[in-house]
Amino acid sequence: MEFLITADDSVCDNQWWKNLFELYAKPGLYFEIHCWSDEADALLSATKYGSVACYSMPDIKIVHGTLKERLIRSFMREAKPSDRSCYNKMVPYFTIRIGSSFSSEKYGTEILLNTDHIVQQDMIEDVIRHRAEHIRFYHCD
To answer: Exposed, middle or buried, 132 (CB in 10 Å: 0-12/13-18/19+)?
Structure first.
């Protein structure tokens, strides 16, 4: 099953994002981080965990690699960015993908998830239940 989760501009912290990320982030999985080319700090930070893909586009740089425990811990410690110039950012990266099951878009304000034999719908619902007034949950199938 596929789900879309969206966060509105009033979400004050990113713990719910971290909890969803933690459900899917397992060492050894393929990951991608997409940064706009003019986001030098984000790109520099992302390249600590992977390499810039040769299929990056002029305006977007894609960092990819194999998910390691170090990157998972780093995301779990990451504070919610204070920059709200274009989005109420949950994370500093425009896109974060893990395998084909987790896709965090628009700085974590939209997340597309696929359930599998490990992550089930009730687990996702448990994570976002306490934020129901600020987070929308859609079934996409």
So the answer is: exposed
